[in-house]
Amino acid sequence: MTGRRFKIAVVVVARNAEATIAEAMESIVTQDYEDFQLVFFDDCSSDSTLEIAVRFRDRSVFTEGRAPQWIGRAAALGRAFEMCSSEYVIVCDADDRLRPGALRSLAEEADRTGADMIIAPIVRISGGKEKILRPCGKIESLDDMPIDTVHFSLCNKLLRLETVKRGCKPFPGIDRWEDLGVIARFVAIEPKISVIDLPVYDYIRRRGVTTLSTSENNLIVSNRIAIAEKLDGWFRERGLSDKYGDFIRHIKFYAMINMARTPDRDLRRWSSVYPEVLGSVMSLRHVPLLYRLICKIVFLFYR
Fold it and tell me: How many CA atoms lie within 13 A of 268 on its CB side?
């Protein structure tokens, strides 16, 4: 660990990512910006992920850690955040990459505005096709943010590290939607947010590769509901339930939506998970109208 304080720490957490980790690391060490620290944390990989990653030690200010046994992505991210020595932090997944000039663009916006969070577009790459996902032009509260990748990923945002460490680290043991749990609490503290128009991150969907976001549906559902409950409790403890009630209803809706997408779905059980949310589903403005209408009809039929 260096005693120097950097402008940015780039965090990479990996487990068994030998096929993609070199590309991710290369995208970081070739940034045209020097005031950053690369923090790599290996979550007890059983392949050559760690051996490949440490080859980049001599090409950046490199800080590394390794779990002696598997601890899960959320806990690993929490460990990595504690290893950072910087003003800001950004995450790069082991199967994605930063775009050229990303760190410089984010740092310049941080210097210009003094913002606590800088958010930028994402380039989603699937089947060789690229699509730019852009955030809302102006974000002042959680209620302005649709529940989607560009608004709640950790990978296209520069976050003030002190705020993350103080009370926004991932909930341990909940490894899907862990990004959302961090960003939701960060924004609820009402930091200064700035949005830039330049894409900084390539989100790559790879054929035949299973990730946390595409793994077993039951785990996704249980983790998302766990995040919804954790956030609901966090807001209640701070007297923010009324202020962010609309946001919590959106979170609960999207937490349960995967239950209705599986071939063996039990719509009666689905309708009973959050009946108060389905009962007021027409008020969820960030949910497409067709979804709201279908859910309302199903709820009325099965309640």
Answer: 0
